[in-house]
Amino acid sequence: MSLGGQEKLKILIRRAAIQKRVREVAKQITRDFKGERVHLIGVLKGACIFLSDLVREVSLETSIDFMAVSSYGKGKQTSGQVRVLKDLDSSIEGLNVVLVEDILDTGLTLNYLVRILQQRKPRVLRIAALLDKPSRRVKDVKGDYVGFTIPNEFVVGYGLDYAERYRNLKDVCVLSLPPE
Ligand code: IMP
Ligand code: MG
Fold this sequence. Notes:
The chain is an alpha/beta fold. It has three helices and nine strands, in the order βαβαβββαββββ. The site of magnesium ion (MG) has 3 residues, from loops.
C-alpha cells in the first residue's frame, strides 16, 4: 500500500476480529427483529463496507437504502455542520430502520440524521456503528449496535477514509500524520 508523504499506519483492529464482531452484531439484529423486516440505511460513504458485510449476516427479510451527508471537510477536523448530499430513495414510514454508520465520533452527524429520520415516522429507529469514540462526544447519541469502542485516535480502513483514501484497507488502522 503506498502512503502519502510520511503518513504512518498501525493496525488497531484486524480483519478477522472485524468479521467476527460484524457477525455478532448481525446476530443481535436478527434476534431483536425476529420475524420482521429490517431496512438498513447506510451513511455514505464510510459505512458502505460495514453495511455490505452486515446485511449478508442478517437472517431476516431486509432492504437497504443510502444517504450521503457531509460533516467533515477534506481532512481530520469536523466542520460541525451537517449537509444532506443524497437523500433516501424511498419512504421509511412504519419500517424497522437501522441506521448504519462507520463511526460515532462527536455525534453531530447521527444526532442530525436521527432528528430528520424520526420525523418520517419509522416504526423503530436504531443505530449501528462499527466504531465508537465516546471520548469525543459533543451530542448525546448512543449506538444500539456498536462494533468496537476505540480510543481517541484517527482511524482509517474498512470504509473509513482520510481525504478519500484508505477506505480499501481490510484492517482498521490508526493513521498518524507528520507534524504540520
Ligand atoms: P461525527 O459527526 O463527529 O460523529 O462524525 C461522523 C463522521 O466523521 C463519520 O461518519 C466519519 O466519516 C468521520 N470520522 C470521525 N472520526 C473519524 C476517524 O477517526 N476516521 C475517519 N473518519 C472519521
Ligand atoms: Mg469520512
